[in-house]
Amino acid sequence: MLNDLLPDHIYFRFNPYLTEMLSMVEIRPDKISQMEQDARMYIRRNEEKFQKAATALLEKRQIQQKVIDWIILQRQLSGL
């Protein structure tokens, strides 16, 4: 929902596709290897999105822009 409400330069969501859903305590080498392969493929396919997120995070924003972004967000959220 936030992806639809917020401007592209404010909200980034990364949901990598995994071949198989695994437990957070997975230790089998073949499963770890598959997760690493899935992650590498996701990074390759979404490199531009990662670059945009990094640029947005490194961008210095003036207090005025922060206030404007907050006002826009409040208006969008109140329209739900």
Determine the structural class based on helices, strands and strand pairing.
mainly alpha
Any idea what the radius of gyration is?
A: 18 Å
The H-and-E topology, N to C, reads as HHHH
Note the beta-strand portion: under 5%
In round numbers, the mean pLDDT is 86
**Uncertain spans, ≥5 residues at pLDDT below 50?**
none
Percentage of residues assigned to helices:
55-70%
Please report the distance between the alpha carbons of the first and last residues: 10 Å
> What is the number of independent domains?
1
Output the number of helix runs. 4
Total strand count, please? 0
Largest sheet composition: none
Shape: elongated
List keywords for this structure.
mainly alpha, 4 helices
Structure in words:
61% of the residues lie in helices and 0% in strands. It has one domain. It has 80 residues and is mainly alpha-helical. It is elongated, with a radius of gyration of 18 Å.
Question: Helix and strand layout, with pairings?
Answer:
Blueprint: H1 2-5, H2 29-45, H3 47-58, H4 63-78
How would you sum up this structure in a few lines?
The protein is mainly α. Helix content is 61%, strand content 0%.
